[in-house]
Specification:
- By secondary structure, the protein is an alpha/beta fold.
- The protein has two domains: 10-222 and 424-435, 3-Deoxy-D-manno-octulosonic-acid transferase, N-terminal domain (Rossmann fold, 3-Layer(aba) Sandwich); 230-421, Glycogen Phosphorylase B (Rossmann fold, 3-Layer(aba) Sandwich), CATH 3.40.50.2000.
- It has helices at 2-24, 29-38, 60-65, 67-76, 89-98, 123-133, 147-155, 169-178, 180-188, 198-207, 230-242, 258-270, 289-299, 329-335, 354-358, 373-382, 391-403, 405-421, 425-435, and strands at residues 53-56, 82-86, 113-117, 137-141, 160-165, 192-195, 214-216, 247-253, 278-283, 303-305, 320-322, 338-341, 363-365, 385-387.
- Strand 6 (192-195), helix 10 (198-207) and strand 7 form a beta-alpha-beta unit.
- Helix 1 packs antiparallel against helix 2, helix 4 (67-76) crosses helix 19 (425-435) and helix 8 (169-178) runs parallel beside helix 10 (198-207).
Length: 446
């Protein structure tokens, strides 16, 4: 009964989502591609003579976290086709860039990896997707529990594993209160739950997952592979528009947070001797670029958009550089003295603290980092992460970093050591999948 009510509510919601995607498709044709694929229809060709291994990564963070896992799967069997699905346009765009080498066709053969949007969790869309794709196994990253999808996979005897799985205490309480039976049935349909931490494993078991299918493997985000030319990119960026300016980056920011960040930066500028540090403000979602630019205009702070041809002005007179492009945040993290990670001064759970830490940068966060409490704990314990409650505390923390660069460097080095100590999740995950027989046997070359 609960699953029927869930499906009914989703049926009422999906037409509004479809209308929104169709309307936005007037200017962005990719939105209408998204609509067709979310309804389970696609023109994607998945022929390599074998059923694909399907990997689902909902948005940008999960798409990036899957990188080392995809690399190991490709190395394990270069003949095994892979399908990566996502739910957001930013995730799709990031995947197109990050996995460009895997997306190239080889002669007459389709590419090793193909991309498409995941279907809505409606029985018809799910059935069309599975009929068309016919995967041999599915790997779902982190926290995506879709009852109709998992039920359809179980009926088809399609093995599904959750990898780098996480379940916060907050989410567990909500599931217990509103959807316990639905979640129990969904969890029982999973062949393996490879969790980030022992605490995640215990929460899944308490929620109804069979204990013998739950294993601790670690967090795939610790395995983030850095581009080999990242140092060269950061040097070029300095030369093009940053010069010798001291720099702090506010990455993946949200509405209600930008105002606090700008207030902190104004305090920092007011107390600066000589040329003040430059703020690079990077909104999480592209659709907010215009709104944030308007906010900057109202603020009175001198700013330049990174997409502007004359962005070199940032090195000389701008107080804020608005990062209104995708795929460049990591390079700015590599350039900066200190990084703030957004989604944490508003109650959204925070974004990836490990990206700047992997580059040896001291990290700042608001108090709402509940999406990744274990990563935050490790960085807090070593001193790499500092939590700030508001604009004043943020300005003070930034001033401390700029005033004592040696101490900031030590904090960054401690965070990098934590990253290195926790690598290896992708390899452990592949080993678990193989041990459970959830991956097809590698095909020998003809």
């Amino acid at each position: 009964m609960l699953q029927g009510l869930y499906t009914l509510l989703l049926r009422l919601l999906v037409p509004w989502v479809c209308a929104t995607l169709w309307w936005r498709g007037r200017r962005h044709p990719g939105r209408r591609v998204a609509l067709r694929e979310r309804l389970g229809r696609s023109a994607v060709v998945l022929a390599r003579g074998r059923a694909p291994v399907w990997i689902h990564a909902v948005s940008v963070g999960e798409v990036q976290a899957a990188a080392q896992l995809i690399a190991l799967l490709a190395a394990r069997d270069p003949r095994q086709p892979l399908l990566l699905t996502m739910a957001t346009a930013t995730g799709r765009q990031r995947a197109s860039t990050l996995y460009a080498s895997y997306l190239q066709a080889e002669g007459d053969s389709p590419p090793l990896l193909q991309l498409r949007y995941a279907p809505f969790d409606l029985p018809g869309a799910v059935a069309r997707f599975l009929d068309e794709v016919q995967p041999c196994a599915g790997l779902i990253l982190e926290a995506e529990l879709w009852p109709n999808l998992l039920r359809a996979c179980a009926r088809r005897r399609l093995p599904i594993a959750m990898v780098s799985a996480r379940l916060s205490a907050r989410s567990q309480r909500r599931y217990r209160s509103f959807a316990l039976g639905l979640m129990q049935r969904s969890l029982r349909g999973l062949a393996l739950i490879a969790t980030q931490t022992a605490a995640d494993a215990q929460r899944f078991i308490e929620l109804g997952a069979p204990a013998d299918r739950v294993q601790v493997a670690g967090n795939l985000k610790f395995d983030l592979p850095l581009p080999t030319d990242l140092l060269q990119q950061s040097v070029r960026l300095r030369q093009q528009c940053l010069g010798d300016r001291r720099l702090w980056v506010a990455g993946s920011t949200h509405a209600g947070e930008d105002e606090q960040l700008l207030a902190a930066h104004r305090l920092l500028c007011d107390g600066a001797a000589g040329l003040a540090p430059l703020l690079v403000l990077a909104p999480r979602h592209p659709e907010r670029f215009v709104a944030v630019a308007q906010l900057l205009e109202r603020s009175g702070l001198a700013f330049v958009r990174y997409s502007d041809a004359d962005r070199a002005v940032a090195a000389h007179s701008a107080q804020v550089l608005l990062l209104d492009t995708l795929g460049d945040l990591l390079t700015f993290y590599a350039c900066c003295e200190v990084a703030f990670v957004g989604g944490s001064l508003v109650p959204l759970g925070g974004h990836n603290l490990l990206e700047p830490a992997a580059l040896g940068k001291p990290v700042l966060s608001g108090p709402a980092y509940f999406s990744a409490p274990e990563a935050a704990r490790l960085l807090l314990e070593c001193g790499a992460l500092q939590v700030v409650a508001d604009a004043t505390a943020l300005a003070d923390a930034l001033q401390q970093c700029f005033a004592d660069p040696q101490a900031a460097s030590r904090r960054g080095a401690a965070g990098l050591a934590v990253i290195e100590a926790n690598r290896g999740t992708a390899a452990r995950t592949v080993a678990l999948l193989q041990a459970q027989g959830l991956l097809p046997a590698p095909q020998q070359p003809v």
